[in-house]
Amino acid sequence: MGAGEYVLVGAVPGGVGAIETALDWVGRHGLVGESRVAPDTAGNLFVRLVFSSDRPERELRDGFAAIGTQWVSRCEIHSLTRRPRLLVLGSQQTHCAADLLDRWANGLLDVQIAAVVSNHSTLEPVAAAYGVPFTRLRIDATGPAEAEEELRRLVKEHSAELVVLARYMRILSPQLCAWLDGRDVPAINVHHSLLPSFVGARPYRQAATRGVKGVGATAHYVTAELDQGPIIAQQWRSASHLACPGEADLARLGRDAEVAVLAEAVRLHCQHRVLRAGDGTTVVLG
Q: Where is the Formyl transferase N-terminal domain positioned along the sequence (predicted)?
């Protein structure tokens, strides 16, 4: 078995002892060359250490756990060679899902898009062009509860490790959020505003009404509370060249921000560069 590339990520106590222990353990497997460390306000250090090893992932995890100190449980080891499997959810607008498919097909995202799901048919030919299975949720006919049961089935059928809401204009119920959390399957959503501003429906209209001079997009983890999940990435587009930008102007500008920030969030997550802080925010070791 050839050597694979792995990453150790987590939070260790500040000071010399813990980080030296982690570096020593990783160094025995051959540090590849990338290490990132960032402090938090509580005196911890967020670490991301890349290394190579010819041992299986499970054996490496068990070996690191055998160090036995309390902080070890706050660290994880993941393979960087294996591509995470994504379930992409879309709606009538196709730009975010189509962009992810294009980046994946051209080798710009180290993922495997297992399937595309939508409550509209507009994404079906897009998914077909990339040879990706497509499922339509007929929510109007079956109801939201049945649609979410179908989503559960698809997550299991495709062994999805990440659900991506690519302008999926439906709210995931608290029950579905809890189910995904229980399976350790995160969900990432793109919201077309700079959260926490303009939460909920029609954010471009909300922004135009307030006379903003630009538009933003936010990629965040999905939680049961609408648009309140930990933020991963944000982007901004200026509209200052327009005398009085309306909803359509902001939507046109915002499309570029939406696709870029969602792709960036997926990349960061799948490379294990996003760590959860204790206060519910994230630390991005880009």
A: 85-240
